[in-house]
Amino acid sequence: MDNNIPDIEILFELADLFKVFGDSTRLRVMVTISDSERSVTEIAESLNMEQSTISHQLRVLRQNKLVRVRRDGKQMYYSLDDDHVKKIIEMGMDHILE
Amino acid sequence: MDNNIPDIEILFELADLFKVFGDSTRLRVMVTISDSERSVTEIAESLNMEQSTISHQLRVLRQNKLVRVRRDGKQMYYSLDDDHVKKIIEMGMDHILE
DNA sequence: ATAACATATGAACGGATATACATATGTTCA
DNA sequence: TGAACATATGTATATCCGTTCATATGTTAT
After folding, report:
1. Strands B67-72 and A75-80
2. Architecture of domain A8-97
3. Which of A40, B55, B75, B89 would suit a FRET pair with A29, their CA atoms being 20 to 30 Å apart?
4. pLDDT value at position B74?
5. Cα–Cα distances in angstroms (integers) from residue A42 to residues A45, A68, A75, A94, B88, in the given order
6. Tens digit of pLDDT for each residue in B32-58?
7. Residues 6 to 65 of A: which have CB under 8 A from any B CB?
8. Measured between alpha carbons, how far is residue A79 from residues A12, A66, A89, B91 in Å?
9. Across the interface, which of A12, A17, A27 has its CB nearest the CB of B92?
10. Mean pLDDT, consecutive 10-residue segments, chain A of 98 residues?
């Protein structure tokens, strides 16, 4: 942490970011697509959840720029946006597993 | 991320951990005590919030082992538990500020 | 064009939770 | 011991949010 205290507004943004990570479905989705991109149906089947549920959560992930999308015909392929995402998850893991 | 997919239960735990970071009040508390320990009253005044609100949130932070407590007379002095906490916050900051 | 499939979206319901108020517990000092 | 202060806790409320169901939008192939 730096010496200077982060602005309140930034802390609100930060809280919003962590909120996205604070749901097990979204985490599972992120983990599911962490190695290679997956279509919505693939993710839903993999997690054994409703397609609409996954779609709703993917929107949240999209809005927070945590995932990328690519269309290929009828399917939309999702993948993690950048390495920050993986690192944030790993960091959390470290805390839990210590 | 490793090749092996994390267990579902661990992802639930992980979500719970991130949930704690997903509240601006708790984040502000953490930032407030990141440099040096502070009493409950000090934190509450610093954030201009009710003492009970802060106390409730400190309990959440305690239960998740994110803060340490030390009693000194009437006051309880809170500080961050370990460097993971700071690093998780920094990592989130990086994501936002990029 | 229409059928079949994939995904997104809207609305509603239920459960979780942050805050405030009141009060209890704990500590110090006179 | 009792007053004053610091912190914790119980309860209630209001808001937020994840999921489901229903349906719309978009794409492909016949």
Report:
1. unpaired
2. Orthogonal Bundle (1.10)
3. B89
4. 97
5. 5, 16, 10, 28, 30
6. 999 999 999 999 999 999 999 999 999
7. 6, 8, 10-24, 26-28, 31, 34-35
8. 26, 9, 15, 20
9. A17
10. 72 97 98 97 98 98 97 98 91 90
Nucleotides of strand D within 7 Å of the protein's CB atoms: 5-11, 17-23, 26-29
**Cβ neighbourhood burial of B86 (10 Å; 0-12, 13-18, 19+):** middle
Per-residue pLDDT of chain B (98 residues; tens, 9 = 90+): 445 667 889 999 999 999 999 999 999 999 999 999 999 999 999 999 999 999 999 999 999 999 999 999 999 999 999 888 999 999 999 989 88
Cα A34 to Cα B2: distance, rounded to the nearest angstrom: 9
Residue type, A1: M
